[in-house]
Amino acid sequence: MLRSFSSRLFAKANRASLSARTLSTTASLSKQAASGSSDAIKITLPDTSFKMYHAEAPSLEMETNKEELIEMYTQMATIRRIEMASDGLYKSKKIRGFCHLSTGEEAVAVGMEHAITPDDHIITSYRCHGYTWLRGASIKSILAELMGRADGVSKGKGGSMHMFAHNFYGGNGIVGAQVSLGAGIAFSQKYLGHPSTTLALYGDGAANQGQVFEAFNMAKLWDLPVIFLCENNKYGMGTSAERSSASTEYYKRGDYIPGIHVNGMDIFAVKQAVAWAKDWTVSGKGPLVMEVATYRYGGHSMSDPGTTYRTREEIQNVRSTSDPISHLKKVIVDLGVATEADLKEIDKQAKKAVDDAQKEAEQSPEPNLDEFWTDIYLPGTEPKSIRGREPTVVHHYH
């Protein structure tokens, strides 16, 4: 539904016969007619988009088009709606346990996905709902998983922190553990000779983990095609980066590995940086450390109100000045690609798609108890029996 609507809106934008345009994503809009009927849109990023460590910066000039802009907006609006639905389900006690939302960080996931292909690999921590959807899981399967239902993307057995999709390896609950796993995924791609990159994501709260630096070392020794991407949302649980880290320049943490700092609230900066980083890693130059500066509007998890260690004024200031969806909306409207009414219709369609998926997910049954014994071993490799939580409970495979 969402994709068909955005396609119709793209066709409408095409009928407007817009010529190529040049845009600075923070400066005033300047429209320059170009020869021919190309619908390419040129973007000039602000000088503050990147900070570099032992590498030359990506170009500040990039191109997009009307169809991609509408798709980006649709995807960010949908991810925000998924998180809003998750928030409501948790508060109504239909989601239990841990639940970490990414509201405010949508530009990271969407910008990244637009810079890579389905053949590239992603592994992240527990703030993973948007990535799971972008990698191909349905909204229904994500919400069902959150509620522990059989139609969940992990059959209702993983919950918020353990979701998987095509070339997407979770959703990992152990802080920082996914970084070394990401290095392993990159090793397999290099070993097999696949021209793909691996993005191993972690938060600023995990940046001081010893296993992160061990993964850095192994990746550089073998020049693995991996991008170590630190999503710096300023707070590791309830502790600010300044209170937890002697150095908050996470993009320099690789020492012998080049790094880049990116404005993660600007979807264009994220896309350009990740595209540049992919080219770097697959060309044989080895790994990169990327710090993406972003911000979460909610608490660390649903059990954290998020206002005991920062002020409401701070949160509202970021919302009003740096919101990634509002930023992209302004770009689209200023370019004449779509009107505010068009974008409100996308918002409406996103809400309906998520609402419909939520209703279906709530109708999904709980998993059969026999499912607790599946997906532990590869089929054919199971032992004769396995013990349950209680010593007296034993399941026999053969």
Automatic annotation (TrEMBL):
One record GO biological process: pyruvate decarboxylation to acetyl-CoA
Function comment: The pyruvate dehydrogenase complex catalyzes the overall conversion of pyruvate to acetyl-CoA and CO(2).
Annotated Dehydrogenase E1 component domain residues: 75-368
Segments for region (Disordered): 354-373
UniProtKB keywords: Oxidoreductase, Pyruvate, Thiamine pyrophosphate
Annotated catalysed reactions: N(6)-[(R)-lipoyl]-L-lysyl-[protein] + pyruvate + H(+) = N(6)-[(R)-S(8)-acetyldihydrolipoyl]-L-lysyl-[protein] + CO2
Matches recorded under InterPro entries: DH_E1, PDH_E1_Alpha_Subunit, Pyrv_DH_E1_asu_subgrp-y, THDP-binding
Protein name: Pyruvate dehydrogenase E1 component subunit alpha
Keyword Oxidoreductase: yes
Organism: Mucor circinelloides f. circinelloides (strain 1006PhL) (Mucormycosis agent)
Cofactor(s) this protein requires: thiamine diphosphate
The enzyme's E.C. designation: 1.2.4.1
Name of the top EC class for this enzyme: oxidoreductase
GO molecular function terms listed in the Swiss-Prot or TrEMBL record: pyruvate dehydrogenase (acetyl-transferring) activity
Keyword hit for Ribonucleoprotein: no
A family per Pfam: E1_dh
SUPFAM superfamilies: Thiamin diphosphate-binding fold (THDP-binding)
Highest taxon of the lineage: Eukaryota
NCBIfam families: PDH_E1_alph_y
Residue ranges of coiled coil: none
